[in-house]
Write a structure and sequence with these properties.
single chain, alpha+beta, Immunoglobulin-like, Rhopdopsin 7-helix transmembrane proteins, Heat Shock Protein 90, 3 domains, six-stranded antiparallel β-sheet, 15 strands, rod-shaped
Length: 605
């Protein structure tokens, strides 16, 4: 309850300050050569000008600035603190004038965090009792400098720190939950959009932490190298990742007109990122660094304008993700524009907005986009459910086809047993009965009966091979197919050429796969014999590393539409689907037919 009241008071009034009781005077040292004593002398001689708004904001500059803070009530100053409320000033020197001018502290981004006189995310300088004047040297030449100057009591500073810590903790927790949400969706669906979103949000959070001084305070407190580069590094990473996420979220593919400009922008930002992280002291290249930092916000403003125009065009066309992204980023884009203008020294921002406006805008943007991603995930889930339903329907249809084919095969077998075997057994029975009734001429009748029994035996063996190819079990798949083709060639009505490659390892594949493979070749051959009217055919069975191919060609009468299989190929379709293969048929009337089947190979026994 106490924290909630503290938060409400902090947001509503933002800790009243003591600016009215203190005046600030500034001197710009364009040559960057003044000493503290020389600056003091110039102040006494009227060389400083009054800083009316208590806000040092020259923007990008090549100068060093001296700020004078005269004290009227020296006894009351012992409980006061001067805030230079910017976490990114390279070098600061804090002097006090009592009997003489003396240096109290040296701090800044170019010094370890522990060197700050008071632990604070920005720069807090305690006032001493008895000093009539304070001098603050602020050096950030060849960069952008802003420093709101605020005098507060120590108790007010503690309340401010507690309030800021609470707000920062709440907003950071919200953003981290969004990062975890995006990571969860990425690991669940494998959709890269969610992964890019998690990285994008994470880069935004790190940029805000760097911008507010939290990163230097907690993450890299001893890094001179990274403390002064963290903000441009994370803002560049944020820009690159935001475009990467935007392309996936709104469906901007390689054929889209915005894809190439996006790629160019990303390349430019990556070059800038590489230059920022180049392991050299950038102060040696102050002028080049100055132009790089000055061009970044200008270029970013132009790109933001282009992206906004592109998103509006997509939204007008009814692109729902573009509408969601545009709605979510409208606040953030406004904040970025204000931030860029702030760094350019063109505008001044209210104190509260400078502290939490960007953070709040980011959180609002992330919440809106997260709702859009949740809707995308819901659509993905429904799509998967529809796909599973379609697969179940397809599997049921495949099962029905297999059952129908099996029933037809059983019926054909029953008809053959009844018509062929039954009739031949009846003739053999008649012959034997005739022998019993009239022994005369029994040798001829017995010979006829023996021949019928041989035919019955041959027919039963052929039917048995059709039901279960025993040759596969005894001699292997290749021998069984060779035997089948040899029997077809023995009729003399057609010449079949057989090409077998691979499958030399015997029964190394599962029995069910070999039998189904045999049945496919058998049915293709039967279709040629019964329907094609061909005089020549070619059958190829080729084993590859992880698949096998069946290619059957004939010079028969062909079909009207090779793309649509006739009814007598339905059984082959079902078997190929059962083995998760691909069936292609090419045929033209009087031009023959070619059937190409690709089947994945199962694991070997």
């Amino acid at each position: 309850m106490r924290r909630a009241l503290l938060l409400i008071c902090f947001i509503a009034w933002h800790i009243p300050c003591l600016r009215a009781q203190y005046s600030f005077h500034v001197l710009e040292d364009t040559a960057r050569t003044l000493t503290a004593q020389q600056a003091l002398d110039m102040y006494k001689n009227g060389g400083f000008s009054r800083l009316e708004s208590a806000y040092l904001n020259p923007g990008f500059t090549t100068s060093v600035f001296w700020i004078a803070v005269p004290v009227q009530d020296t006894a009351a100053a012992k409980d006061l603190v001067l805030l230079a409320d910017n976490a990114h000033i390279n070098h600061l020197e804090w002097y006090a004038l009592k009997d003489s001018l003396r240096l109290l502290s040296v701090t800044g981004d170019f010094h370890p965090f522990r060197q700050r006189p008071l632990v604070h995310n920005t720069f807090a300088f305690p006032l001493d009792e008895g000093a009539q004047l304070y001098l603050l040297k602020a050096d950030k030449h060849h960069e952008s400098i802003q420093a709101p100057l605020i005098v507060r009591s120590r108790s007010q500073l503690q309340e401010q720190q507690a309030g800021e810590a609470l707000v920062n903790g709440i907003l950071t927790g919200i953003v981290l939950l969004i990062v975890l949400f995006g990571t969860f969706l990425f690991t669940t669906t494998g959709d890269k959009v969610y992964g890019w979103y998690a990285l994008y949000v994470c880069s935004v959070l790190l940029w805000i932490w760097a911008n507010k001084g939290l990163g230097f305070h907690y993450l890299w407190p001893d890094s001179y190298f990274f403390a002064s580069r963290s903000r441009p590094v994370f803002v560049l990473a944020n820009l690159v990742l935001s475009l990467q996420f935007l392309k996936g979220f709104t469906g901007i593919g390689k054929s889209h007109w915005m894809y190439t400009p996006f790629a160019v922008f990303q390349a430019i930002w990556l070059i800038m990122l590489g230059a920022t992280l180049w392991p050299v002291d950038y102060t040696r290249f102050a002028q080049a660094s100055f132009y790089l930092q000055k061009s970044l916000p200008l270029f970013s403003l132009l790109v933001i304008g282009f992206i906004t125009a592109g998103l509006i065009a997509q939204a007008v066309k009814g692109n729902r993700p573009a509408i969601i992204y545009l709605a979510g980023t409208s606040v953030f884009i406004t904040c970025i524009m204000l931030e860029n203008l702030y760094h350019l020294g063109k505008i001044k921002l209210p104190e509260f907005f400078a502290h939490f406006g960007m953070f709040t805008g980011v959180v609002l943007e992330m919440i809106i986009i997260t709702f859009g991603l949740a809707a995308r995930f819901n659509a993905y889930r429904k799509e998967k459910e529809a796909m599973l339903l379609a697969m179940n329907t397809q599997q049921k249809a495949l099962t029905d086809t297999i059952v129908t084919v099996e029933e037809n095969e059983r019926k054909a077998l029953a008809d053959r047993l009844h018509d062929e075997i039954g009739s031949m057994l009846s003739l053999a029975s008649l012959q034997l009965s005739a022998v019993q009734e009239n022994p005369l001429g029994s040798e001829t009748k017995l010979q006829h009966a023996g021949n019928l029994l041989k035919d019955i035996s041959t027919t039963v063996r052929n039917i048995s091979h059709q039901l279960t190819p025993v040759a596969i079990e005894k001699y292997g798949l290749l021998h069984a197919i060779e035997d089948m083709v040899q029997l077809a060639n023995a009729s003399g009505k057609i010449h079949i050429e057989l090409v077998l490659v691979g499958f030399s390892g015997g029964n190394e594949y599962p029995r069910n796969f070999q039998h189904t493979l045999y049945r496919i070749v058998q049915e293709l051959l039967q279709n040629i014999l019964r329907h094609a009217g061909a005089s020549h055919a070619l059958i190829q069975l080729i084993e590859h590393e992880d698949a096998c191919s069946i290619i059957v060609e004939d010079n028969g009468k062909g079909m009207e539409n090779g793309a649509t299989a006739p009814g007598f190929l339905r059984s082959i379709h079902s078997k190929v689907s059962y083995l998760e293969g691909i069936l292609q048929i090419e045929s033209e009337p009087n031009q023959g037919t070619m059937v190409n089947i690709d089947l994945p190979l199962p694991r070997k026994n």
